[in-house]
Every structure is written in C-alpha cells, then in structure tokens.
C-alpha cells in the first residue's frame, strides 16, 4: 500500500471518529525539494504529523503555524516556501500574506520552492438534546440534515420511537461528547425538567436553551439555584428556546430552535452576499 493511500485511509478514519486535523498537500514544487507535488501529511491540533510527509525543516515550521491557525478559524490557506532572493523579487517578506498566499523563507541549501495547501478538517458541530419529546425528536432529525452531530439523551422508557441521532444515551448524562462547537437544548417538556437542566448546565457549550415558557423556567430557576447551580449560568439558558416565528407544531418549534442556533453558529462568519445587496 502506498503512503498516499495510507494517508487517505487515516483521513477517512479520523473524519468518521469526528477528530479535528489538518490535511497538508504539496501542490507545486520548483527546483530541488525534498517532497514532490502530491505529497500529503496529516497534522493533529498539537502539531504532531501522524501520517505522511511534506519535507523536512525547510517547510515544517511554516506549515505547522498555518495548520494551527487553520484549525482555529476553520479556513484553508496556501503556504509558499521560497528562498529569500525569490521573495525579494516578489516584493514580499517571510510571514506576508498576498492574495490568500502566506509566504515563508526556505533557508535550506536546496533553495527550492514548495507551495502547500493547508486544509482544516473539523468535526461536525455538536447538538446535544436532553429529552425525548416530539420537539426533541423533530429537532434531532432536522439537525442531522443540516450537518450536526446529534446526541440525544433521555431515559430509555421515555423514548417511544427510534430517534434520528448519531448517539443515543439512556439518561440525561452523556458519557462522551466530541471536542467541537457545541449547542445544548433541553426538551423534556415535563419529564425530568430539573434533572435535565442540571445535566445541561454541566455541559460546556456556546448555547443552552429550554423548550418551555418563561414562567416555567423562572420556577425551575429557583429550584436550580437552591440546589447549588450558579445563578449566572442558569440565567444564560434561553427560554423559551428558538426564534419567535409563531411556531406551533413540534416541527415548527424545532425549526425555530435550529434557526436560533444557526444565528449563534454563524455569528462573526457572515460575509457580504452580492445576491442580497
């Protein structure tokens, strides 16, 4: 089996396991270089190259720096490693960015040029749903269609039909959650509201919401705080969950919740769209 096939096999395995990594690919070389076009490497968030090879120290530092940045912002980038005389001819310095290309200096004796495409591969955003109400079931199904990794946690006795979820947990305490952007919704609707909310508050997430009225949440807040939950954390729970779209049916309520989560997920990522100007 070739090294290229081994790298792509591991890419498939890591994607399936919802693990974050960078796939670095040499797309162009000029003159003498250690790695040739088509060479690939898998880089973990800690900077470890776990498979493949893209050359020695001449390119390694610049690629690892670009990999760390790509994992933080989720955007691919191109790194061009060139000898300093060629950078000078282009009018750029090591570390400069021009038209989407990050330039770096090749100080190795080979004095070759390598262009490396750095592509972050991130886990799907995680939606954790506590409860098995009709809204919870519809929310799970709709979220999967939008590319979320869905964990549904509820007592097995409360689950009337097989949920459309990636992971199903018996009870309100997920044993393992992917290390990715996370959104949590409690949709117990009367079946273990307080217990589920306590479990939700223990989950680190960008968004916590409760499917219930403000009055009901206010009553639960008193119990949660009296039981030791931090008042500030409880107050961050959005209740009722979802945007005010006038939703009535479970499907509509689920859609309004996903709309609200989408606003949170895309905050700061939206760019001008010429078709809407």
The separation of the N and C termini measures 51 Å
Question: How many E strands?
Answer: 12
CATH topology of the largest domain: Rossmann fold
CATH homologous superfamily (4th level) name of the largest domain: NAD(P)-binding Rossmann-like Domain
SSE-based structural type: alpha/beta
Strand-and-helix sequence, N→C? HEEEHEHEEEEHEEEHEHHH
Please tell me the total number of domains: 2
Side-by-side strand order of the widest sheet: 3-2-1-7-4-6-5
Percent of sequence in beta strands: 15-25%
What does the average pLDDT come to?
Answer: 90
Main sheet overview = 7 strands, mixed
- Rounded radius of gyration (Å): 24 Å
**Helix content percent band:** 25-40%
Oligomer: single chain
* Number of helices, where a helix is a run of at least 4 consecutive DSSP H or I residues: 8
CATH class of the largest domain: Alpha Beta
Low-confidence stretches: 271-277
Overall shape: it is elongated
Give the second-level CATH assignment, the architecture of the largest domain: 3-Layer(aba) Sandwich
């Amino acid at each position: 089996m070739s090294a290229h096939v081994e790298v792509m096999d591991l890419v498939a395995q890591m994607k399936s396991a919802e693990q974050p990594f960078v796939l670095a690919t040499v797309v162009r070389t000029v003159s003498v270089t250690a790695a040739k076009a088509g060479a690939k490497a898998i880089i973990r968030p800690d900077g470890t190259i776990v498979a493949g090879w893209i050359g020695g120290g001449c390119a390694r530092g610049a690629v690892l720096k670009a990999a760390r940045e790509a994992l933080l912002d989720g955007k691919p980038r191109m790194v061009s490693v060139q000898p300093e005389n060629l950078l000078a001819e282009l009018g750029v310095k090591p570390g400069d960015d021009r038209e989407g290309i990050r330039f770096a200096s090749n100080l190795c004796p080979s004095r070759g040029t390598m262009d490396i495409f750095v592509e972050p591969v991130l886990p799907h955003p995680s939606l954790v749903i506590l409860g098995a109400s009709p809204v919870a079931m519809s929310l799970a199904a709709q979220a999967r269609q939008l590319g979320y990794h869905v964990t549904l946690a509820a007592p097995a006795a409360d689950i009337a039909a097989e949920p459309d979820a990636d992971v199903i947990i018996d009870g309100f305490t997920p044993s393992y959650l992917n290390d990715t952007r996370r959104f949590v919704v409690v949709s117990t609707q009367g079946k273990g509201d307080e217990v589920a909310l306590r479990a939700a508050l223990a989950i680190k997430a960008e968004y916590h919401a409760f499917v219930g009225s403000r009055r009901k949440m206010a009553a639960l807040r008193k119990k949660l705080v009296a039981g030791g939950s931090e008042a500030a954390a409880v107050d961050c729970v959005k209740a009722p969950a979802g945007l005010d779209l006038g939703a009535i049916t479970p499907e509509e309520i689920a859609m309004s919740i996903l709309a609200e989560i989408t606003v949170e997920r895309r905050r700061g990522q939206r760019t001008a769209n010429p078709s809407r100007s």
